[in-house]
Design goal:
about 375 residues, D-Maltodextrin-Binding Protein, domain 2, four-stranded mixed β-sheet, 4 strands, elongated
Length: about 375
Amino acid sequence: MNSRLASIIRKEFIQIFRDKRTLVIILFIPIMQLFLLGYSATNDIRNIPMAVMDQCQCAESRELLDAYRVADYFKLAYTIESEDALRNLIETGRIKVGLIIPPDYNTRLAEGDAQVAFILDGSDATAGSTALSAATLIGQAKSTALMVERLSRSGIDTSRLQPPLEVRTRVWYNPDLVSSYFMIPGVIGMILFAITSILTATSVVRERERGTIEQLIVTPIRPWELVTGKVIPYVLLAFIDTFEVILLGNWVFGVPVRGDLLLITLCSGLLLLSGLGIGLFASTVANTQQEAMLITWMTLLPSIFLSGFFFPLQSMPLILQWISYIVPLRYYLVIIRALLIKGVGMSAIWQESLALALFGLVIMLAASLRFRKRLD
């Protein structure tokens, strides 16, 4: 490393440590995002508030309520006397589901023709679909248990009764289906992409705003040395944030790190190329830091939504799936989730790695050429 490049790197580090706000953004915002997304962005729906209108008040209805109470999907929050009360609770948002047990429930149960009403609030589709699946499974399990009990009372040996089809499920890599296993690797990609693109763009434009870019131009510093010297500090800080999130994700949320750390670092470096290129390109278009922020956010928000960070790509319209192929974050999320959760090697992710490398090199080359022209 020559003295000119080292001087630029040293200057940039001094500027970062002098700007306390930037330092806070770099070091503490990733931790905040980790905890917010790790705890709040989850598909694990539990303790859905439920109101019960038990018109039978019998032993059989209490057994049914116990079946719902034992499952941690529902929390029996209210006992009501009328459907108007149920409607009011749902409309005010205090409950998501309601269970209505008719007055002749025990009689019809003895006759083998009992029915109960399960009311769902469909305005929250996520909680509603989970509650629907859970209520159906609990009802089927209770129905099967009652049928076996009835057959046993009739003198039939139920131990010989076998279902015609048995589906035995096995979940690999994440047996408990914990949502944080899916979200935390996504946070790593988002932090790498956001920090490198936003801070690179603003750091270069800041020189132009303060009038110091002209002073740098008249020095013997070459354009590539200026670019490299300004981005290297942010690359190092981005890697610090990456390992910070990995360690906290493993310690707090139990997210495993099954892949090779060296391979994780190399693949993360490929994403950094794209982030640096986008930030550098934005710096050649913008004249102020606010403009640079807006330009990078214009690329950051579509990247988050079209990368599979929140929503599966397979559920999107075909046109959006095609557009997602030009989003570098899409490839990195596949890579980092496979490395952390599955512990795969390069043979399983070489296609995504190649696509990420090509995209990073192209955008970095285009941004560097435009930046050099802007200096000239």
